[in-house]
C-alpha cells in the first residue's frame, strides 16, 4: 500500500515504549509475568486506578508480579480481584494463569496523556512484558506527522518509543489482531518469528530445526508453541 493510501485511511500502529518512573515496566522487568492494561479511572485524591490482568505460565510467576507491585514505591494500593478469574486461566488468556488487579498510582508517571493529546487513540488493551509497554493505537494523519509527534513525546517524557507495526487503519483483520492478544509471550514470539522467516511459505524459507535454533529452544518446544498459537488464532471461539 502506498504512502498516500495510508494517509487517506489513517494509521494503525503498535508502539513499543519504555519511559521512566513506571511501575508496570518495573514489575514486568523484575518478574516472568506480564500485564494487560484495560482501563484507568480517576480518584478523588488526584491519583488514578487502573484495571489490569496479570498473566504468566505459572501461579508463582503471577504471585511474584503481584508482590512486586505491592512493594513498588510507584504504587499506592493494590486490590486483587480473585473472585473474577481465580488462579487458573482459560484458552483465551495470554498465559496459563491470570489474576485481575486494581492498582492505584500517580497519573504523572504514565505516558497515556502525552499520546492522547497528540491524537494517538488507544483502541485495545496495552500489553506490558519484559519491561516494555506495547500500545495498539489509531492515528488519523500521515506517517510523517506521526513520527514528528512521537519525537516530541520522546523528548518530553525521556521515552524510548519504537514503531513495531504500521498499517492502514482500513486494512488488516481486527479479529486476528484480537486473537493475537490471546497468545502467551512464548507463543507470540515463536509465531511472529516463524512468519518473519517464511516458515509458513511454500516452499518453507527455514527448517523447523533452524527456526528452533534462532529462538533458542528445542524443536519439540518450538512445535508446541506453534501448535498452541495456531489453535488460538484459527479458532474464533477459543
Automatic annotation (TrEMBL):
InterPro entries, A to Z: HTH_bacterioopsin, RNA_pol_sigma_r3/r4-like, WH-like_DNA-bd_sf
Every HTH bat-type domain range = 183-234
* TM region(s), chain numbering: none
Report what the protein is called: Bacterio-opsin activator
Which controlled-vocabulary keywords does the entry list?
Transcription, Transcription regulation
Does Transmembrane count among this protein's keywords? no
